TrEMBL record:
Function: Part of the phosphoribosylformylglycinamidine synthase complex involved in the purines biosynthetic pathway. Catalyzes the ATP-dependent conversion of formylglycinamide ribonucleotide (FGAR) and glutamine to yield formylglycinamidine ribonucleotide (FGAM) and glutamate. The FGAM synthase complex is composed of three subunits. PurQ produces an ammonia molecule by converting glutamine to glutamate. PurL transfers the ammonia molecule to FGAR to form FGAM in an ATP-dependent manner.
Gene that encodes the chain: purS
Key words, A-Z: ATP-binding, Cytoplasm, Ligase, Nucleotide-binding, Purine biosynthesis
GO molecular function, one term: phosphoribosylformylglycinamidine synthase activity
Localisation: Cytoplasm
Protein name: Phosphoribosylformylglycinamidine synthase subunit PurS
The enzyme's E.C. designation: 6.3.5.3
Catalytic reaction equation(s): N(2)-formyl-N(1)-(5-phospho-beta-D-ribosyl)glycinamide + L-glutamine + ATP + H2O = 2-formamido-N(1)-(5-O-phospho-beta-D-ribosyl)acetamidine + L-glutamate + ADP + phosphate + H(+)
UniProt pathway: Purine metabolism; IMP biosynthesis via de novo pathway; 5-amino-1-(5-phospho-D-ribosyl)imidazole from N(2)-formyl-N(1)-(5-phospho-D-ribosyl)glycinamide: step 1/2
Subunit structure: Part of the FGAM synthase complex composed of 1 PurL, 1 PurQ and 2 PurS subunits.
Lineage of the species this protein comes from: Bacteria, Bacillati, Actinomycetota, Actinomycetes, Propionibacteriales
UniProt-listed SUPFAM superfamilies: PurS-like
Amino acid sequence: MARVVVDVMPKPEILDPQGKAVLGALPRLGFDLVTDVRQGKRFELQVDGEITAEVLADIDRVAETLLSNPVIEDYEVHVEDHSVSEVAHEAGRA
């Protein structure tokens, strides 16, 4: 069993009020090193069997249609417990 992670973030040109709220709170808590915050979502999907290019293509469709709003968000799919470069190469992405 493998874990596929989908990270979803607002596109750079989209305002991120939650990230700005966190950024505003940090100095009040004594954290002065952070200069910007963007808040996103992380989804961890358990997948039975081998991670193939076909499985990654299915996960990509899930990410695009359900887990993200492609108009205002970007997403990345990556595999934990496997070499990401190996899987990306198998998927024809490398």
